[in-house]
């Protein structure tokens, strides 16, 4: 197993108090596997990513539980040790490529940064590796692009550079946080193909964070759906899309405008994800948002239950759940 | 039915200036000869990738940019000249919803003033009457009276976009130009905003010009649509024409790139997409002229027109 997360809690300090943004998250990632994490904004998807890779403010954040990369415990490792893991073993692809790239550095230098840190290559070897990486991510003219600055590149090209940086040291785990949200559909398709190609070549595991269910259906092997800091349903991509169980998963799937059928009204999930301060930490969290859902029988402390091989659902309310229109 | 808005051969060029005296030495052909019309109460979609010129069309229609050539006719009158627009209340009857709700709402104003501004300007409403109208408008987008004295930053992205919708609806427009109104929003919030926009259309009979890159959203919202590439329309038709029977390679490629939720067919879907991608690269000469421009539109059926090379 590549990454094993057990009972991970992450709490942020707001006005002097700690509030849990992640609650008892248990997830695994295997080699050669794409795990997608889905949910609305504020559900803790990105917090999960930053907890794994250690990109949080230590004074404001408390992480507990266990995150194991192969056999190494990541929770509580020192900043120096984390520097060794980050980039070399775990790579990260960010959502906004313009914000993630240094505007004052040439592309080649930005890629070389992690090579200098993690390898003992000579300057010439590094130059060669940069060219190799840029052509690997599908850039037509790697020699020219290497000398350019981020602002000279298009959005799709920038995202390719970000991917090149993330895979520079051949990490076996790649975390992609909304890698294609800012891109056009055709570019999105190319970037997703590229990610799959890299995954196959390097036998890496990928954690793909997104709110686009179409992307998930095309890419993922397994899916975890998050709501208000908890995983509410997880299973293989076939299970999640053909037999979704949890009311939240089913609501999300229903609210999606689809190109192959016309409906008069889109389904709307009333209300919004509660903010960190107003989040209640007991009971079935999604039922508090949708009023008619709360009348169903719930567990007082909802647990994950296995419903099929590898398919887990939180709480028992899904058994009696029907959309009010049905 | 008579057209509400008719655009004929619209061209918008941005000058490229350089040198010491900022001489104009080239132009960016953002919109290069586009014609379409919108009937009262219908939704017309313009789809394109970034840089295709779709937002330029919207901005030209509301008067944020000036047309280089071509004519815009509104309710039978030529409104290409902006002085005419003022006289015939064009600026009141054509409103806009912007993509980024935070930067398009004044951060120093309260909601009552933001939504009330067009009412003060165009309908001379004041005091209690103004407040009553604003509350009414907030209700149509599902917001409470509490919202009146708050500032834009106190709302979530979806709520802010609904305020943007309420502001656009305030002067009772006949046409609303919506430039990527939901592309910055979460899935469920997106559904909410789209539903309110549909409600408003039924209630007030406004027409929408829906500018977007999201083919799923446009499919849901629009009856007729145009696919735009490099400043020109490559294919125009009804929803069924475009989605069921795409003829231009660019449209096919765009449709194939939409991620489908059908997991069982994903391998097939991916192969199909990659095949079209290759076809697009190899057949470029058949669909674009030697300068890389799109050919003029040819009418195929009554509703369906495609930019194909003449035999």
TrEMBL record, chain A:
Keywords: ATP-binding, Cell membrane, Membrane, Nucleotide-binding, Transport
GO cellular component, one term: plasma membrane
PANTHER family associated with the record: DIPEPTIDE TRANSPORT ATP-BINDING PROTEIN DPPD, OLIGOPEPTIDE TRANSPORT ATP-BINDING PROTEIN APPD
Family membership: Belongs to the ABC transporter superfamily.
Annotated GO biological process: peptide transport
Membrane topology: Peripheral membrane protein
SMART domains for this protein: AAA (SM00382)
Pfam families in the record: ABC_tran, oligo_HPY
Subcellular location: Cell membrane
SUPFAM superfamilies in alphabetical order: P-loop containing nucleoside triphosphate hydrolases
Entry's Gene Ontology molecular function annotations: ATP binding; ATP hydrolysis activity
CDD domains, A to Z: ABC_NikE_OppD_transporters
InterPro entries in the record: AAA+_ATPase, ABC_Ni/Peptide_Import, ABC_transporter-like_ATP-bd, ABC_transporter-like_CS, Oligopep_ABC_C, P-loop_NTPase
Protein name: ABC-type dipeptide oligopeptide nickel transport system, ATPase component
Residue ranges constituting the ABC transporter domain according to the UniProt record: 3-253
